[in-house]
Fold:
Amino acid sequence: MKTSAVKNLIALGEGFTTEFKRSGTSGLGREICAFANTTGGVILIGVTDTGQVVGVKEHNRLKSEIQAIARSAEPPIAVEVSSAGGILCVTVPEQHIKPYSFGGKFFMREGATSQQMSRNEIRQFFFKEGLIHFDETTCTAYDLGKDLTPTIWKRFVKRANIPDKMDMVTALKNLHLAKDGNMTLAGAWLLCDDITRYTLRAGVTCALFRGTTNVHILDRKDFTGDLYTIYEDCMTYMQSKLNTALVPHARGRDERLELPEDSLREALVNAIAHRDYRSTANVQVHIYSERLEIITPGGLPAGMKKEDMGKKSVPRNPLLFGLFYRMNLVEQIGSGVKRIRDLCRDYGVAEPLFEISEDWVTLSFPRPGEKGSEKERMEKAQAEAHEEAQVGVKSGRGIDSTGEVTPEVAPEVTPEVRLMLLVLKREMTRREIMHAMGLSDEKHFREHYQQTAIRLGLMEMTIPEKPSSRLQKYRLTSKGRNFIEKSGEIP
Structure:
């Protein structure tokens, strides 16, 4: 720093960005940390509080001590140390990995002094100011060499639509998931098998309660894989616990969840993407007899008000949210709340209610109609389907002399299974079959469609030796094709 610039600083006196220190390095870590947590500043060693220049000796030794002090901060702070006559100038540029601590304590510049703050206070301050994004910070617990296994990377490549031949390091760098050889927290959350190894409360808890309060818990699951898998597991949980009706139509019957699946998906993605990952709480999904709640820790992101919801988007974790969009978990950036409301309205159910406090956002979906009515309709539809299937038994129909299933098959081939065989026009994954049939409940599909068709020999796995392989697909057997052909419809 030039001598003239130093003289100007002294003339202005101590302030928000300038600190005078008579000699030595005692207490210097506190001052460096305070400047790093604000907009930066300059510390002049060799100047008294009144602005008198007394100077210091052994500049080279002091420079080494100052750099060591700055490096001992958490995380290390970059400083520039220079001499201007007898004065030693310590310049603390604006830092970008806030907040910083020194000796396990946090300091902020307030006026012309440095004040100690608790970690919670400094965290809240920076979040309110929108100066830091937790998802972009380095995850020191993630070891790129050990934790990023070929299996995890291959899974992520498929989900994030990364070209197969692209170098892994290049892809991570271009997606801002890794920097300077370290994984960011967003990267750790998406490329792991257990998210709690890196952020203890980053999982999601789902629970089913009896009645309208959380006094009597009927079922609870904690999901702690990677964020994409957590999202899928939570959706499956909600689908399995909510009521489902079988809606008849010309080709058979379709399943209809009591609440719009797409609306639940959007709400769950928003909760996972916008939550405060520094909170000691996790995202919670609570299912009661008359409502479903998705509870997000952290309140609204900086810059958002309740009246802004549905009109603008301010991501708390922009890097993570952008990756969710790339992975097709987000329909359209900025449309979440409006889309949730529109989907409920179009589905013919009540719009969800928002309850917002400083630390929480709760989205409550009222469950429709009379208690149990959806379940009763589903049971009635299943009973009707079973009654239709009994016709084959009463007329003496069954298996022909060749062992092939005839169109007048055994009672176990329900109209639902027959419909599945009709849509199975090629080798298809479970998800593709369910999508083609308009189904959403995986457990119901496995029990009432998939397992029945396989047991009767009408459908088979393409990888039978690995039933749970993620590459698993299903196809018609010769018996299944024969059944369809004899019923007059060839897929």
